[in-house]
Structure formats: structure tokens, C-alpha cells
Fold these 2 entries.
Entry 1:
Amino acid sequence: MGADTAWTAASGLVLVLFLVLHLAGVALAPLDPATFEAYAAGLHGAVWLPVAELALLAVGLAHAGFSLRKRIANRRAGNRAQLVSRRGEPLAALAARGQAAGGVVLLGFLAVHLRQLRWPRPAAGGELEALQAVLARPASVVLYVAAALALALHLFHGGEAAHRSLGLLTPANGRSIRAGVRLLAVLVGGGFVAVTLALGLPLLPAPGGVS
Ligand code: HEM
């Protein structure tokens, strides 16, 4: 296993951990708005937050950089084949083929997402209002749902690939690791879709209605 492959896998697993925590945080917005606001204010006041954000940025850049370098090396070596047989599994084949494209889509989403909600960061007590203002726009709802679906597909293949790259996938545990990773992909992607729809749909202007 090359160093790039191992770093791509390890950084990907850290990003999944962030996404699970992020989903748990934003799920509070529709479920318990007051707790969400208190959680956001507490998080933004934490002294460790800038360090955690820089670390997350470094891990994100490492993930994109190492996978790109591995892809370029593979292409130079003339290796364009899909190494794992996906016969009879069209969704898995789609996820494997779309892995790089999915990463690019997610990077594009992140540029918009961070511009909307991180720069500038809403004032204390205004996090939910800012989120609702973003998701009141139909184009944002479409973008967030599309990003959540792209993320689910990316995790669907990436989770299994990461375990394989780290040498954790064996014939004995392959079936359960694959099932667990796919369940996680559906839960995380589905969770972000659910939060987007729960916050955005009630705010969308009625067709033909006056705004
Ligand atoms: C329902 C979907 C989502 C909602 C409602 C949401 C909401 C938010 C909010 C409110 C913030 C600002 C946090 C702050 O003020 O510190 C944020 C930051 C962020 N989001 Fe999301 N997010 C969603 C989906 C995603 C997805 C799918 C990704 C990754 C693919 C993502 C990655 C990030 C990152 C990296 C940050 C910056 C974290 C930081 O610097 O503190 N988000 N998101």
C-alpha cells in the first residue's frame, strides 16, 4: 500500500468523524431550536475552536491532495481499470466510478456553504436565523440536498476503500464492514437531506404566491 493511499484513507476517516458530529449539531436546529442556539454560541466561544478549524482544514486539504496525487500516479501508470468487481451492484459501481467527481462536487458545495454560513459567522443568537435565511432560497435547498446525496455516494464507496487501503478489510469481515459503511453513508446523507428539508421546506415561497 502506498503512503498516499494510507493518508487518503486516514484523513477520510477523520472527515467522517467531523461529519457525524456536524450532523448531530445541525440536527438540533429543527428538533430543538433553543438548544441549537445555545450549542452554537457555546461552540463559537470555545478557546479550542480556531485550532480545531485549522486542523480540519489541514485534514480536508490533505484528503483532496493525496487522492489527487494518487489518481495522477495511477493514470501515469496507465491504470484506468476498476480494481474491484461490481457486477450486479449498480449503485456500488456508480459510487466507485463517481468517487473523484463526487469529491469535486463536495469541494464546490463547501465553497458556497462556508461563504454562506462561516464567512461571515452569524452573531451569537443569530445562527438559526442565518440558517433559515439561506434555506429559504429554493436554489439553496436543491444545492444542499444534492450535496448530501453526493456525500452519501462518496461515503458509500470511500468507507469501504479506506478500510481496504488500511488493510482492515479481510474475507472474514468484508461483508459486515461493507454493510456498516453503507448504513453509515445512508444515515449521514439521509440525515443532511432530512435537516435541509425540515428547515427549508416550510420557508419556501408558495408557487404563484406573493412574497
Ligand atoms: C443540512 C445540511 C447542513 C447544514 C444545515 C449545515 C450547517 C452549517 C453551519 C450552520 C455552519 C457554521 C458553523 C459555525 O458557525 O461555526 C457550518 C459549517 C461547516 N459545514 Fe455545514 N451544514 C450542512 C452540511 C454540510 C456538509 C454536507 C458538509 C461537508 C461536506 C459541511 C461542512 C461544513 C464545514 C467544513 C463547516 C466549517 C466548520 C467550521 O469551520 O467550524 N456541512 N455548517
Entry 2:
Amino acid sequence: MTELALYHSPGACSRVPLILLAKAQADYDLRIVRIPAGEHRAPAFQQVNAKGKVPVLVRNGEALTENVAIVSFLAQQFQQARLLPNPLDGWGYAQALSWLAWGATTLQPLVGRIRSPQRIAEGEQAQASVKAMGVAELQRSLQLADQRLAGRPWLAADDWMAPDVYLFWVVTRGTENGVDLAKLPNVAAHFARLQQDAVVLRALEREAAAAAALPPPASH
Ligand SMILES: N[C@@H](CCC(=O)N[C@@H](CS)C(=O)NCC(=O)O)C(=O)O
């Protein structure tokens, strides 16, 4: 039997596989790594992923990193859940991957810049400027998604799939940090639909329960 585990930090981009595993109704072990407490730098986690990042999917004791790779594997493993279009529909599949990769390679680094400007610039003023420019760039980038979502509920198919979940995560982080959804009406509607989705709610409840069950973090 295949054993799966997901390393996830509450609120981080590992929410994407967290939600997709819920959509697939997969049986897996949720392992919380609290980035704000520095747990991703602890030797125990570095042994799981030397990159020191989440998500990590562990299958039968072997780790897989990078959201796009994890999502591709999950989509193949849980085909009935339609996490990505059928690969036999080569064009539809590639289009969905294109939206997903855009989220993971263009939008996610912007979120990182906004949330951790101290990694890029020294001094309060410089960091505030990095953050403000990141928010402006994210706001601009999201216009692409807004145009795509004009007249269609989801990015890639007739139901929500992995790229929609990625966008949902980016918008969650973006709105926490100053992105204005009033200027992105189609993205706002997409976000609201997923916020109310029973699967998404179930995944976020599992995240909250798992985090609440942990002891206070040790200092690293
Ligand atoms: N390229 C990786 C990026 C993963 C990533 O940066 N994850 C963040 C959370 S959203 C993280 O673990 N950050 C910890 C750190 O960089 O110190 C992917 O797409 O999976």
C-alpha cells in the first residue's frame, strides 16, 4: 500500500497540495513544519528536504519537492479527483500546467518578496520599498488571471483544479498584504467561490486542527 505524508506550514504554498489531497479524499499523514518558528531550518526537516522548504510529499519514505512536481504526481495518482486535465488531452493538460507553473514560478516569488523583504534589502526603508513594489507587481500580474476568468469560473476547466488552488493561495497571501481585490472583480469572485467550497474548508480545518494540536515551538 502507498503511504503518503505532506510536510506543510500553515498558510504557506504547501496549502496547494493540502487542498488537492482533500479533493482526492486521500489518506495521508499531515506533518506540520512551522516556518515562522524556524522549524524548516531544523536538522530533522533539513534531512527530509535539504532545500529547507515546503511542500514536501513523502511517498513510501521517499521525498518529492517542488509544488508543480507534487501536483503532477497527485493528479496522476488520483485521476478520479481531476486535479489536472487528462494528459491524453495534451493541449488542455499543458494549458493547465502553464497556469500552475505561472503561479509557482512568477507569483510565489512575489509573495516571498512581499512577506520577507529582509531577505532582499537591508534597512526599514528599503524593505518597505521592496514590499510595496512587490505588492504593486502582484496586483499587476493578477490582471492576467482576471482577464482569463472573465466569463468563466475556473482557470483551466469546467471545475476547479490545481491552478485554481494555486491562485487561491496567492490571493489569500496577497490580500493579507495589500492586494486590492476591488480592482480584480473576476479574481475576487473566483476567490470567494473557493473560500466557500466544502473541500477547501475541510482542508483548512485540518490545517488548523493539526497546528493547534502541536506543542509550542522550540526555539531553533
Ligand atoms: N519552488 C518551490 C518553492 C517552495 C517555497 O518557497 N516554499 C516556501 C513556503 S511558500 C518555504 O518553504 N519557505 C521557507 C524558506 O524559504 O525559508 C515550490 O514551488 O515548491
